[in-house]
Write a structure and sequence with these properties.
Blueprint (H helix, E strand, L loop, with lengths): L13 H34 L16 H30 L6 E8 L2 E6 L4 E3 L1 E5 L4 E7 L4 E5 L4 E5 L5 E5 L5 E7 L11 E7 L1 H11 L5 H11 L2 H4 L18 E3 L5 E3 L2 H9 L22 H13 L11
Parallel strand pairs: 1-5, 4-10
Antiparallel strand pairs: 1-2, 2-3, 5-8, 6-7, 6-9, 9-10, 11-12
The structure holds heme C (HEC) and copper (II) ion (CU).
Length: about 325
């Protein structure tokens, strides 16, 4: 933890070990393919240098198979790396369904984390060791990029969009985290730590961190405070769609096509309601784009996800 410059950061996950192996093997391949070129260049430069007596008549024989081999063999080797790294890329882009989800909002110039329990952290995130963790990320302002060298992962956090990243850290410890996308004056201080804890330490931390009403609970409070419930409830006189069980459902839009109500859809439905209007309704919902920040949207979406117990009649179809 003390050395100021780490040429090769510690590896905190099995995936990090795989990345290192890939890089080492690819480095070896590049060395193997380029070494003959540079060695022969040096030998021939010496042998045929100016003034040296040497036989300079061009050779007559061509060895077709030699020429074919030095194209085909490197090609096959490189293709091997293509499939190897593609498999790893797909793995890195496909979080397991049972991953623990932590919401991340990047903003100039800090990282904010929200746990499902309701616990909140800034520039520091606690995660359990040996369990897949998925970071659902967005940005409050400009493009940032979350980079954790010890996990060998990096992903941009984009304004108005959700991106994700997952890892399974199996070595408890504290690892640096930083922003890897130049994002303004204080970009250089947009740093933090990932704290990987043994399951029991993590449980203890979570219990101590408090819930502050819980993520979905804070969303529910907002839902009432912002007047969402005044339109979106069975008793409302305003014609607005019922939101019970909305998450994951396919919604038909006014232009006739269907979209699945995922996090991104719900975010846009709240922030820019007139972008995609639900079929059969008039666009009377006020946009909340400059009322809410991304953390509050995450809370509202968490509430909508948990909101399944429909009052009858509100369910719609
Ligand atoms: C003035 C009444 C009104 C208020 C207030 C209102 N909405 Fe809406 N909402 C609507 C109407 C009407 C629609 C359907 C038309 C559309 O898509 O714009 C809708 C659509 C939605 C949808 C998409 C529903 C679907 O079936 O796809 C979501 C999600 C939503 N609102 C959430 C909210 C949240 C969260 C709030 C509070 C921050 C809120 N609404 C406040 C009237 C309202
Ligand atoms: Cu940044």
């Amino acid at each position: 933890m003390s050395s100021p410059i780490l040429l090769w950061p510690a590896a905190a996950s099995a995936y990090a070990g795989q990345v290192d192996l890939l890089i080492a093997c690819f480095g070896a391949l590049v060395a193997l393919l380029s070494a003959p070129v540079f060695i022969l260049m040096a030998i021939w430069a010496a042998r045929y240098r100016k003034g040296r007596r040497a036989d300079r008549t061009p050779g007559k024989d061509r060895n077709v198979w030699l020429e074919v081999s030095w194209s085909v063999i490197p090609f096959l080797l490189i293709m091997g790396f293509f499939f190897w790294s593609t498999a790893m890329f797909l793995d890195a882009r496909t979080p397991p369904g049972d991953a623990l989800v932590i919401n991340v909002v990047a903003k100039q110039w800090m990282w904010k984390f929200q746990h499902a329990s309701g616990a909140r952290e800034i520039n520091e995130v606690h995660v359990p060791a040996g369990r897949p963790v998925r970071l659902a990320m967005t940005s409050q302002d400009v493009i940032h990029s979350l980079y954790v060298p010890a996990l060998r992962i990096k992903q941009d956090a984009l304004p108005e969009r959700y991106t994700e990243l997952w890892f399974n850290a199996d070595r408890p410890g504290t690892y640096p985290l930083r922003c890897a996308e130049y994002c303004g004056t204080d970009h250089s201080v947009m740093v933090g730590r990932v704290i990987v804890q043994r399951e029991e330490d993590y449980a203890r931390w979570l219990a101590r961190a408090g819930t502050d009403g819980g993520l979905a609970g804070r969303g529910e409070v907002l839902f009432h405070r912002l007047g969402c419930s005044s339109c979106h409830s069975a008793r409302s006189t305003a014609r607005a769609p019922g939101l019970a069980g909305i998450y994951g459902r396919t919604v038909t839009l006014a232009d006739g096509h269907g979209v699945r109500a995922d996090d991104q859809y719900l975010r846009d439905a709240i922030m820019l309601p007139n972008k995609d209007v639900v079929a059969g309704y008039r666009p009377i919902m006020p946009p909340f784009g400059h009322v809410l920040d991304e953390e509050q949207v995450v809370e509202l979406v968490a509430y909508l996800k948990s909101y399944r117990s429909a009052q009858q009649g509100e369910q719609g179809s």
